[in-house]
Amino acid sequence: MAVYDRRVVSALVIRLLGPPEIERDGVIVAPPRGHKAWAVLAYVVLAERPVPRTQLAGLVFGDADDPRGALRWTLAQLRRALGVAGALQHPRDKIPPMESSPAQVTRVRGPAAPPSQ
Question: Which of 24, 34, 57, 103 has a CB 3.0–4.6 Å from the CB of 71, allowing a cystine?
Fold first, then answer.
């Protein structure tokens, strides 16, 4: 299970509607590079159960010479963006859903609505 250390990141917001962004403790962080990194993050954030690495690698990186290697590199990039070394890791070759962590994760949130007049 991915475990977040609240001393490192106490609030994590992942926005997938509108321009995607990651916010840690109220600060927008440097985004992961590329559409496929966002696809991996979105898939994991929206997953209801652990996602097998082989399945995710084939789905997102099926055209790569080394799909699992591409997934490993992308997961490392996402861990840096999320700010938690153990995020998106699981001992049984599956990536746990983000909701399984004790951190406050907003799974999907669009841009703030404009004030009504």
Answer: 57
